[in-house]
Structures are given as C-alpha cells and as structure tokens.
Amino acid sequence: MAAEIHQSVSRRAAILRILRESTVRNQDELVKVLRKHGFDATQSSVSRDLRELGVAKAGDHYIVPPSEEALASNHFAAIANFVIAVKTAGPSLTVVKTTTGTAQSVAVAIDKSNWPEVVGSISGDDTIFLATEDAREQRKLTNRLREIFPNLDRETRSG
User: Fold this and answer.
1) CB distance 79 to 109 below 8 Å
2) 97: alpha, beta or left? (left if phi > 0; alpha if psi -120 to 50)
3) Which tens digit of pLDDT belongs to each residue from 102-150?
C-alpha cells in the first residue's frame, strides 16, 4: 500500500514537471511520456491524476494550475478569458458557455471553489450546467460569475 502511494505521488510530480516543460495534447501522449520516464501509467490512472492535480485542458493542450500563492490572489486568472456567456434556464439551472474545449477546466475551478450556492455541476466541451437550490441562490451565483468573468458580452450581463 505504501509503495502504491509513493508511486502515485512520484507519478503526479512527474506529470506536473512534464506539463510545465512541454506541450502535451492528450492522455495517451502523457502515458507514453510517463512510461519513457519509468512510470507504470495507464489512461485511467493518468485521468485520475490530472483530475486530482487540477490540471486543465486549454484548447488542444494541458495547463498546470497556478501555484498556491497565485491561486490565492486570483483563483480564476488562468481561465478568465474562457467564459463567454452566463444565462439562466429556469429558477435553479445556470448555463455557462465557454470557448470550445475549455468547459471542463472552468467547471473544475468552480467545483474547487466550493461555493455554497452550487449544489452540482455538469460540463461538456463548451457548456457547463450549474444547479442551485432555488432562484435566490441562482442570483448569488450569477452575480458571482459576472464579477469573476469580466469578458461576458453585454447581452449576457443584462440577462
């Protein structure tokens, strides 16, 4: 058990180093690079590692989350330009539109923020559904999103 934990920690450190030093476009590519560095990696273990590390996919490649210090100053700085629109769909569903291929990265950042008004999220390629308990919580959420993502178009901001 201790050996498995050590392997996982070492593999995750290697993933961060690899992603900082080179462009990796998909999990299969990352598995191959890890194996070249002597790590026993599968697509499922890499997928789990990327999720746990908070690694995001920006367009066609992975990006490493900012350091804890940078995260504290602006948790959403790395993804701020990805959000295009925020719209409501009924009293407890908020739809966030993003640039293609970035919805999961934005959703991970929102999920990690542990906002009390968000009870759940689902993300696709360019769309995120955020569930709130009621319309009051939804208003809190949409106000928060509009403060964090300043690049929303005028139409979205009024709706």
Assistant:
1) yes
2) beta
3) 888 888 888 888 899 999 999 999 999 999 999 999 999 999 998 888 7
Which tens digits make up the pLDDT trace of 58-69? 888 898 876 543
* Cα–Cα distance for residue pair 62/53, rounded to 1 Å: 12
Produce one character per residue of 94-108: b if its CB has 16 or more CB atoms within 10 Å, e if not.
Answer: bebbbbeebbbbbbb
Sorted by where each starts, the structural domains of the chain and their CATH numbers stand as: 2-65 (1.10.10.10), 77-158 (3.30.1360.40)
Q: What is d(CA 55, CA 85) in angstroms, rounded to the nearest whole number?
A: 23
CA angle 48, 54, 60 (to 5 degrees): 90
Question: Which strands, in side-by-side order, build the sheet including 83-88?
Answer: 83-88, 93-98, 127-131, 120-123
Q: Report residue 70 as tokens.
A: 């940078």
Quick one: how far is CA 128 from the chain centroid? 11
